[in-house]
Amino acid sequence: MKQHLSHTPGPIGVFDSGYGGLTILNKIREALPEYDYIYLGDNARTPYGTRSFEIVYEFTLQAVNKLFEMGCHLVILACNTASAKALRSIQMNDLPGIDPERRVLGVIRPTVECIGDITQSRHIGVLATAGTIKSESYPLEIHKLFPDIQVNGIACPMWVPLVENNESQNEGADYFIRKYIDQLLSKDPEIDTMILGCTHYPILLPKIQKYTPKHIRIVAQGEYVAESLKDYLSRHPEMNAKCTQNGSCLFYTTEAEEKFVESASSFLNQQIDVKRISLE
């Protein structure tokens, strides 16, 4: 595959299993508006959170390869499940054979790096998909940097479907949002910082805030990932030179275009054009 990839500069790729990565893309474009981007949502196969490690890895690698074929030298996995279950394998095992000069980055590490400065009680809560919770990626990464912090997590299996099906603002969503927050805080009442460990969850932020005690800081990932990417590009001029800067953004989905446009436009507060592609 290596020999088929273009070496001319190209856009930055942003991948998610569905719409959630748009919350990351938004913040990245706010911080780095001059760059070109390709957003790829695997909406046809969402959610990833309940799938096995093997399947998430397989699907994520397909998406990364597709973005490489489309000219990206740098790909952001704007999906916690993919970052937890596939990122390390792709970085260690696949990139050397595909093209050792290309890079794939995730969203967990940038989120974790900020936590030490935020929590006062040193008790952290993580709300995420079943896959991310099961992977224990957040406790592992947090304890590498901050061994004194206690981490508790709760899987929120209904939250992604609420977002993907445009049900997030309906009254029925309140039950499931309150349920998982209450479960988390009952595990550890000393939690003062809550990580939204899925890129879909900022869409639910108004309701999450409604059921979260006021003293608890809610950490959404977008701004931290954006700042981390900005820092990465400044520290790696060789990669920065491979990222084109015309301020454009293209959208691709594995689902029907109309469905993506309807949902994505509401997240982005703008009308977009999207093309359907297959990853298989």
TrEMBL record:
<dbReference type="Pfam" id="PF01177">
    <property type="entry name" value="Asp_Glu_race"/>
</dbReference>
<protein>
    <recommendedName>
        <fullName>Glutamate racemase</fullName>
        <ecNumber>5.1.1.3</ecNumber>
    </recommendedName>
</protein>
<comment type="pathway">
    <text>Cell wall biogenesis; peptidoglycan biosynthesis.</text>
</comment>
<keyword id="KW-0133">Cell shape</keyword>
<dbReference type="InterPro" id="IPR018187">
    <property type="entry name" value="Asp/Glu_racemase_AS_1"/>
</dbReference>
<keyword id="KW-0573">Peptidoglycan synthesis</keyword>
<dbReference type="InterPro" id="IPR033134">
    <property type="entry name" value="Asp/Glu_racemase_AS_2"/>
</dbReference>
<dbReference type="GO" id="GO:0008360">
    <property type="term" value="P:regulation of cell shape"/>
</dbReference>
<comment type="similarity">
    <text>Belongs to the aspartate/glutamate racemases family.</text>
</comment>
<keyword id="KW-0413">Isomerase</keyword>
<dbReference type="InterPro" id="IPR015942">
    <property type="entry name" value="Asp/Glu/hydantoin_racemase"/>
</dbReference>
<keyword id="KW-0961">Cell wall biogenesis/degradation</keyword>
<dbReference type="GO" id="GO:0071555">
    <property type="term" value="P:cell wall organization"/>
</dbReference>
<dbReference type="GO" id="GO:0009252">
    <property type="term" value="P:peptidoglycan biosynthetic process"/>
</dbReference>
<feature type="binding site">
    <location>
        <begin position="199"/>
        <end position="200"/>
    </location>
    <ligand>
        <name>substrate</name>
    </ligand>
</feature>
<feature type="active site" description="Proton donor/acceptor">
    <location>
        <position position="198"/>
    </location>
</feature>
<feature type="binding site">
    <location>
        <begin position="80"/>
        <end position="81"/>
    </location>
    <ligand>
        <name>substrate</name>
    </ligand>
</feature>
<dbReference type="InterPro" id="IPR001920">
    <property type="entry name" value="Asp/Glu_race"/>
</dbReference>
<comment type="function">
    <text>Provides the (R)-glutamate required for cell wall biosynthesis.</text>
</comment>
<feature type="binding site">
    <location>
        <begin position="16"/>
        <end position="17"/>
    </location>
    <ligand>
        <name>substrate</name>
    </ligand>
</feature>
<feature type="binding site">
    <location>
        <begin position="48"/>
        <end position="49"/>
    </location>
    <ligand>
        <name>substrate</name>
    </ligand>
</feature>
<feature type="active site" description="Proton donor/acceptor">
    <location>
        <position position="79"/>
    </location>
</feature>
<dbReference type="GO" id="GO:0008881">
    <property type="term" value="F:glutamate racemase activity"/>
</dbReference>
<dbReference type="InterPro" id="IPR004391">
    <property type="entry name" value="Glu_race"/>
</dbReference>
